[in-house]
Amino acid sequence: MLHFILKLLSSCISRNKLVILNFHQVLENNDVLRPGEPNKEKFDWQMALLKTYYKPMSISYALNLLGQGKLPTNSVCITFDDGYLNNYTVALPLLKKHNIPATVFVASAFSHGENMWNDRIIDLFASFKGEEIDLSAAGLGKVVIKEHEIKYQTAWQTVLALKYFPINDRLSKVKQLYQDNGNIHETRKMMLPEEILAMSEAGIEIASHTHNHPIIKDLTEKELLAEILTNKNLLEQWTGKAVTGFAYPNGKTGIDFNEKAFNVLATLGIKYAVTTQWGFSTPTSEQYTLKRFTPWDDKPWKFHLRMLLNLIRNK
Q1: What is the pTM of this model?
Q2: Which of 26, 105, 237, 302 has its Cβ near the most Cβ atoms within 10 Å?
Q3: DSSP string, the chain
C-alpha cells in the first residue's frame, strides 16, 4: 500500500521531470571499504522497484520526449560511471532480468587492464597487513590504521588528498604509495574493449567519460578536446556506434567543470552531458548540465520515498 501511495504522489508532480540515477559499481559481495556501492541483491530489488513503479527508459529516448514536453510521469534513467567490469558481470544480467535500459559512461584509459587511481588506493588499504601505513607521498605522513573505521576514513582521506592533482602527478604519487607499502596483486576492475562491445550489443548505451578521468576545469580547451576526442574515437571504434552522451568526471558544476566544456562538447557532436548535481531535469534544463541523483537507502520504502523527495526538494 505504501508503495502505491508513493507512486500516486510521484505521478502528481513528476510529469516532464526526468530523474537520472547515477551508479558506479554493483558488487558481487559487500565491500567494507566501499559501503556506498550496492551489492547484487540490493541492486536487484532496486531495479524491481523501478520497473514496478516507474517508467525506465534510455536517456536519448527520454530527452527526446522531454524536449517535446511529452515525458510521462515517473520516468527514470539508469547510468553508470567509469566502466567497471561488474557493470557487465553483475549489473547487466539484472538489467536484462527486469528489462531496463541503461547508459555506461566509460573512461577509456582504464580499459586495458589498469585500475583507476582511486580504486588502487582503496585496494592498497584493503590488502595492507601492517598497523602503520606510510602515506607520505600523499602528504599525510605515517598513520596507524589498526581499527577498521580508521582504515576506512584514512583510505578516503588519501583519495581526497590526491583528487585534484594533475593526472601524471596523481599517478606518480599512487605508484609511490605502492612502493612505500609493499606492492600488492591487483584484481582487474575495469571492462576491456570486448566487454564494452558486449554491453553495447546487449542494448546498453556506451557514452563518453573522458580518456584519463581528469578534473576538466583544470584543462585548456585544447587538452579537453584531446581528452574527449580520444575517448570518443576509441569507444566508437570498439562498439561501432556513435557516441553522443557525456558524463563529467566527478561532475560538480564550477568545481570539476565549467562552461568552457560546452563548446568542446558541441564541436564533437555530443548531444547531452550529465553532472553529479542532485535533482531532476525539465524541458528547460540545459542539455550540457543535466542533473543526476541516487537514493542510497537499504530499505525499499526509504528508497522509494527518497525518489519522491528528490522531486520535491531538488530543482
Answers
A1: 0.95
A2: 105
A3: -HHHHHHHHHHHH-TT-BEEEEE---BSS--TT-TTS-BHHHHHHHHHHHHHHSEE--HHHHHHHHHTT-PPTTEEEEEEEE-BHHIIIIIHHHHHHTT---EEEE-GGGTTSPPPHHHHHHHHHHH--SSEEE-GGGT--EEE--SHHHHHHHHHHHHHHHTTS-HHHHHHHHHHHHHHH--------B--HHHHHHHHHTTPEEEE--SS---GGGS-HHHHHHHHHHHHHHHHHHHSS---EEE-SS--BTTTB-THHHHHHHHTT--EEE-S--S-B-TTS-TTSB--B----SSHHHHHHHHHHHHHH--
Model confidence over 153-196: pLDDT tens digits?
999 999 999 999 998 999 999 999 999 998 778 899 999 999 99
